[in-house]
Write a structure and sequence with these properties.
This protein is α/β, with parallel strands linked by helices. The chain folds into two domains: 379 residues, 3-Layer(aba) Sandwich (Alkaline Phosphatase, subunit A); 91 residues, Arylsulfatase, C-terminal domain (2-Layer Sandwich), CATH 3.30.1120.10. The protein is 24% helix and 16% strand. It has twelve helices and 17 strands. The strands form three sheets. Strands 1, 2, 3, 4, 5, 6, 7, 8, 9, 10 and 11 form an eleven-stranded mixed sheet that branches. It has a four-stranded antiparallel sheet with strand order 12-13-14-17, covered by helices on one side. The longest helix has 23 residues. It is globular. The two termini are 19 Å apart.
């Protein structure tokens, strides 16, 4: 809280109005799902506009190759495996993952005098203990960890029918006082239309901008596009050469365009930072319906594998930043950055160094945004994490993957995910202490790649470079041992 107060003082002393910040994070949008990143089977004019008017990153990474951990990390500046969630994602009976006493990006902006809002997919848990009842007011949630307003999907686009709803602040939209969210008749009026979800979220995001255009605001806008089930609005049918997958990606681009148009209409585009990225790598079509018309579109561009895995396709993500007057238009950065970095970047923008126990996995990327020369990488190293809890570490051109697995779900012999446990260990008050779905043991057949010479991670150099393996493994262990 002391950090936030100092930030507020620093902003108040700066000449002119502080910039608004809009952080848009797609769900499962791959590195190759924008035309400005090489997509050829559909157009993304809004994304391309942002790239032309701002900076495009080629070596940006999500802290995890699945969604809940990345969302935690973006808002706290720390890797999610430092929390009680050790792999995979939260289920719908799990409580809030973020400690309400922890500093978050939203709280930083609140204390600095900003109006803060979250519109979109939350998927960070609700309540304090297992099995939260969503029939009435639900807390803690977004409003307890830094947001003045919330409208969106409580968990994921593929939620079960009972929670296939919208929530406003702490309540399910359309659920009357005294009704149960589990009641079948109640669900008929609260259930959201999957095909209209992007439109509804877009309407709310634009409304937030218009309501708060006259004072500083921070909008965190994590979309449901393009997470399965793929449900683009019918107006996009046949609009791409990549089938329903491309249509859902184009709908995301439309939603971005609505935000950019709102900023222009409100005449605040020149004083608004717009960030667009994704929570992890892309997930190629799985079902016959999804595969129809896909035409082998490369959702993760040239990178190996997909969402959930430990390879580059799992965590290398698109990242576009437009900041008029600060970020050079049409610029491209090859700097290695991670989505955890925005917490510290926004703090240090005002001359504040976060204490060691806040945002410890976050580094200031402002020198890159300003186009300043720097002799060494801004991040000394980056830790990657997969759905099954497998680790990798990147330092410079070198990437070490711990063990011989690919990071994906462990599978049963007869098919299906091999889950050891679904419930976390609890303390005496019923609050989670630790949740490890798989409890896997990784072998010592590590994988070592030089991404400069071998960007597709095709040649394992671990046996030829034992000293490099030892160096990176020691660094990884030191990182995991730190709090």
């Amino acid at each position: 809280m002391v950090l936030a107060v100092f930030i507020g003082m620093a902003i108040a002393n700066e000449p002119g109005a502080p910039p608004n910040v809009i952080f848009i994070m797609a769900d499962d949008l791959g590195w190759g799902d924008m035309a400005c990143y090489g997509a050829t089977q559909f157009e993304t004019p809004a994304c391309d506009r942002l790239a032309n008017e701002g900076m495009r990153f080629t070596d940006a990474h999500s802290p995890s190759s699945v969604c809940t951990p990345t969302r935690y990390s973006v808002l706290t500046g720390r890797y999610a495996w430092r929390s009680w969630l050790k792999n995979w994602v939260l289920q719908e009976n799990h409580p809030l993952l973020i400690d309400t006493e922890r500093m978050t990006m939203g709280k930083v902006f609140q204390q600095a005098g900003y109006r803060t809002g979250c519109v979109g997919k939350w998927h960070l848990g609700w309540g304090e203990v297992m099995g939260t009842d969503f029939s009435g007011e639900v807390k803690p949630g977004p409003l307890e960890v830094g947001f003045d307003e919330f409208f969106g999907v409580p968990f994921s686009h593929n939620s079960g029918k009972a929670l296939q709803v919208f929530m406003r602040d702490r309540r399910i939209v359309g659920l009357s006082e005294g009704e149960s969210y589990l009641d079948k008749e109640s669900q008929k009026k609260t259930r959201r239309s999957l095909e209209d979800t992007a439109t509804e979220l877009s309407r709310e995001a634009v409304a937030f901008i218009e309501r708060h255009k006259d004072k500083p605001f921070f909008l965190y806008y994590p979309t449901t596009n393009i997470h399965f089930p793929l449900t683009p609005h019918p107006r996009y049918k046949g609009k791409t050469d990549a089938g329903i997958y491309g249509e859902f990606a184009v709908e995301f681009d439309w939603a971005l365009g609505e935000v950019l148009d709102a900023l222009d209409r409100c005449r605040i585009a020149d004083n608004t930072i717009v960030i667009v990225t994704s929570d992890n790598g892309g997930r190629p079509p799985q079902t016959a319906k999804e595969k129809a018309g896909y035409n082998n579109h490369q959702c993760n561009g040239p990178w190996r594998s997909t969402k959930r895995t430990i390879y580059e396709g799992g965590h290398r993500v698109p990242l576009l930043i437009r900041w008029p007057g600060m970020v050079k238009a049409g610029s491209v950065s090859d700097e290695t950055v991670c989505l955890t970095d925005f917490m510290t970047t926004f703090a240090k923008q005002h001359g504040i160094d976060p204490p060691e126990d806040i945002a410890q996995d976050s580094f200031d990327i402002m020198p890159v945004l300003k186009g300043m020369e720097h002799k060494s990488p801004l991040r000394p190293y980056t830790v990657h994490h997969s759905v099954n809890g497998q680790f990798a570490i990147r330092k410079g051109d070198w990437k070490l993957i711990e063990g011989s697995r690919d990071g994906d779900f462990p599978k049963k012999k007869k098919g299906g995910i091999d889950v050891v446990r679904w419930q976390p260990e609890l303390d005496e008050n019923g609050k989670p202490l630790r949740l490890d779905y798989f409890d896997l043991k990784f072998d010592d057949q590590h994988q070592l790649f030089n991404l400069k010479d071998d960007p597709k991670e095709s040649t394992n150099l671990a046996k030829k470079q034992p000293h490099k393996v030892k160096e990176l493994l020691e660094l990884l262990n030191a990182s995991r041992a730190s709090k």
